[in-house]
Design a protein that fits this description.
- With 457 residues, the protein is α/β, with parallel strands linked by helices.
- Helix content is 14%, strand content 23%.
- The protein contains 6 helices and 33 strands.
- Strands 4-6-8-10-12-14-16 form a 7-stranded parallel β-sheet, with no helix packed on it. Strands 1-2-3-5-7 form a 5-stranded mixed β-sheet, with no helix packed on it.
- Helix 5 packs antiparallel against helix 6.
- The chain is elongated.
- It starts with a helix and ends with a helix.
Length: 457
């Protein structure tokens, strides 16, 4: 009887061991979506044809006892949270991989990774907070929001030969990046590199047309930024708070700089427009070295090459915009209550939205051109907060008649009276019509000449 009981106990123990062994083996391999996985020591292999399954963190079947992942040929997508918070430090991706989904490598200690030519997208927070140091792109890949944000060990990014599009906040908080070559990048989203505090130099290539809002805000070590020739717009706050930025060079097609785009860049003393008629938004260069330098202000007006950027409300009622000016920026004359009479040169190409918002004292405008051209400078005053220009009386100069001081294209005794007011300093003119002898000054010789001209009419 004892022998029978002992034998039964032996059989039970043997069955129990077999079950344990069977469980252990099953835990080393399995399926994931359209693929299979196998754990061999510290290396995890993913093989198959198609997409891996998505996970939510706790249900990952392969556990955390591995340091390397090899994604085999045929696998097309890496599942959500597939390797999040694991110990993987090395990843090899087959050329068949097309997508890396949400949170796939979140906070993983990966050191280096290369994305092949067929990787079309890397989804949001895919590598957020990981330990990656170097990233290489070989194809046209879209990087979704926060894909690599707060990868604080990241020092090097190779964007390859072109096609990479960077979404919002993708590299924000990557505080170890020192140099960025974006010459082949096609898109830079909002806050894409915000808070990258170690970046010193940025080169933006000709593939980009627009820089996202706050794209480089808070990059306090940034010293210079070269903007590609095809960039047309820099959005709001793009470089705000870049306290070390000293120089910005715009490309050939730049048209618009957004609200507070360079706000609080106290070292920024050189802004090169390359002759472009650029519209600067509200406070676009406020508290920059250029803005704060009183030598750059002319009678209370700040010009940047051919752009009138801002004014101080210090006029004596009359202001003449200097010749060669092509654009009056948005909000340039905002609430300038001392402005009553304005002289505009015929070099003007655009009056930006809200340029004269709340200029309640503006009564009269003298424009060195015809009415049709004037209306083309700002097509709809009422919809663009430039009502002051509508309510003001606009004098047009259609014929350049020397001595036509009142701008009515004819010579009369009224011109003589106006010229006397000009010589006494009561009236001002931005054109050269009162300079009848063309010697560059308004004086009594012009007055005498005008009297002779009127006597012969």
């Amino acid at each position: 009887m004892k022998k029978i009981i002992s034998f039964i106990l032996f059989i039970c123990i043997l069955i129990s061991c077999v079950n344990c062994i069977s469980f252990s083996v099953s835990a080393l391999s399995g399926t994931t979506g359209e693929c299979s996985w196998q754990l061999d020591g510290k290396v995890l292999y993913i093989n198959g044809n198609g997409k891996m399954a998505d996970y939510q963190g706790e249900d990952i079947p392969w556990g955390n006892d591995f340091t390397e992942v090899i994604i085999g040929e045929g696998v097309t997508e890496i599942g959500e949270f597939a390797f999040a918070y694991t110990s993987v430090s090395k990843v090899s991706l087959a050329e068949s991989v097309e997508g890396i989904n949400f949170g796939a490598f979140l906070a993983a200690p990966i050191k280096e990774i290369t994305f092949g030519e067929n990787v079309k997208y890397i989804d949001a927070v895919a590598f957020e907070g990981s330990k990656v140091e170097k990233i290489t792109f070989k194809g046209a890949t879209f990087l979704n929001s926060n894909a690599f944000d707060y990868c604080e060990n990241l020092t090097e990014i190779d964007f390859g030969n072109g096609g990479v599009r960077i979404g919002s906040c993708v590299f924000s908080g990557c505080s170890a990046i020192k140099k960025l070559n974006l010459e082949t990048v096609e898109e830079i989203g909002g806050a894409a590199f915000g808070g990258c505090t170690a970046i010193k130099q940025i080169t933006i290539g000709n593939e980009i047309k627009e820089i996202g809002g706050a794209a480089f805000s808070g990059c306090i070590s940034l010293e210079s930024a070269t903007i590609g020739d095809n960039v047309e717009k820099i959005n709001d706050y793009a470089f705000a708070g870049c306290t070390g930025l000293k120089e910005v060079i715009f490309g050939a097609k730049m048209k618009e700089v957004g609200v507070e785009a360079f706000l609080d860049c106290p070292s920024l003393e050189k802004i090169v427009l390359n002759g472009n008629a650029v519209n600067f938004g509200y406070n676009a260069i406020y508290n920059t070295a250029y803005f704060n330098n009183e030598d750059n202000w002319e009678d209370g007006v700040l010009y940047l090459e051919n752009v009138l950027v801002a004014v101080k409300d210090t006029f004596d009622g009359v202001y003449t915009i200097k010749k060669g000016t092509k654009i009056i920026s948005s909000y340039a004359f905002l609430r300038t209550s001392s402005l009553a009479v304005l002289y505009v040169p015929n070099s003007m190409e655009k009056i930006a939205d809200s340029a004269f918002e709340e200029c309640i004292s503006l009564l009269e405008v003298y424009y060195e051109g015809d009415e049709e051209t004037w209306l083309s400078l700002n097509e709809n005053y009422f919809k663009t907060n430039n009502e002051a220009l509508v309510y003001a009386y606009v004098n047009f100069q259609t014929d350049n008649v020397l001595g036509d001081c009142d701008g009515d294209s004819t010579l009369t005794t009224t011109d003589l009276a106006v010229l006397k007011l000009i010589l006494s300093g009561i009236e001002k003119r931005n054109n050269n019509l009162p300079d009848i002898n063309q010697d560059g000054v308004f004086d009594v010789v012009d007055l005498a000449t005008l009297k002779l001209m009127l006597a012969n009419i």
